Amino acid sequence: MSGALSTARKSRIGYLLQLLTRQRFESRYATERATLILCALSISLSGCAQDYSLGPPADSELMTITVKVPEELEAETMKVMYRSSTCKRVSLGGSGQRVERDGHHAISVQLQRQGQSDLYQAKLPMDGGGMCKWHLANVTFGVAYANPTRFGEGVTYGAGGGVVVVFDHNSSPRGGTGIKVDGDLTIKKGYYPWLSEAFLGGYRKQINLAGEGSIYIAYQALQARNVYFEPVLHSNFVVYSVGPKVKKEGNYTSITYPDGSIQTNGRWGPNFRKLEAIRQAAEAK
User: Hey, is 159 helix, strand or coil?
Assistant: First the structure.
């Protein structure tokens, strides 16, 4: 009888030891997984407690970004991205596996006015240096209305007037690489004041810059060392839009052009070619 009890006791002790070992393993796995998640979500790009700062060498080539700013507008803060194939970004896949991608380091740069001129400029090192061997990947910049309330009380700035330039083969933060150009890049585009009033999703009245294409125009300039952007503001040709107050089939945004013509054909914004034609016809008189 005592032998049977001894055997049962040993079996129970063995089971408890196995359970304890399993709990320790699961606890260790959970700890390691939590550490990996924290590292992946931290500011570091491929691990914890490493230096991923920029350190441009003194002899680095420079990228010069110049914007000619019209009187009513202002230069927006430029977003600059550097990339590295040395320092990877670490994330977790759907099955918890470790996934590595090229690291990126984003900074904000304010373009500086050149004397008393209307030119604003920034010079960026092509070689970001540091232990990660950063390289300049892309920039996002543009212009906006300096004083939106000149269009009415409570008016805020909306969108438009943006530029994205990619200097490598990676996509920009806005997606894609844009129009491919050789050598330095010169951009001269026309813009029209677009005062929009919307009701659905909360009332808002905004002044936008209506230009060719979307909110941003994008380029890929692999050999560029100079980027020049000259937005031409046609401030006397304002276009207005008023959105529907009730979401209902057949309720469309009403767009009133500078010549008084009105469109309600389902467009969300102005027709740039129509604006150009109206201006050119008026200037030809």
Answer: coil
3-state secondary structure (DSSP) of residue 104: strand
β-strands 162-166, 98-109: how paired? unpaired
Summarised one tens digit per residue, pLDDT across range 28-65 is 444 444 433 333 433 344 344 466 789 999 999 999 99
Residue ranges with strand state E in the chain:
62-68, 73-75, 78-92, 98-109, 112-113, 119-125, 127-129, 134-145, 156-157, 162-166, 179-180, 185-198, 204-211, 216-220, 226-233, 239-242, 254-256, 262-263
Give the dihedral of Cα atoms 191, 197, 201, 203; nearest 10 deg.
Answer: 130
User: Which CA distances in Å does 80 have to 42, 119, 266?
Assistant: 20, 19, 36
**At residue 97, what is the residue type?**
Q
Of 251, 124, 162, nearest to 200 (Cα)?
251
Q: Tens digit of pLDDT for each residue in 88-101?
A: 877 777 777 777 77
Domain extents for the chain?
1-42, 62-284
Q: Return d(Cα 194, Cα 271) in angstroms, integer.
A: 11
Tokens representing residue 64 in the block: 């010069």
Distance CA 88, CA 93 (A): 15
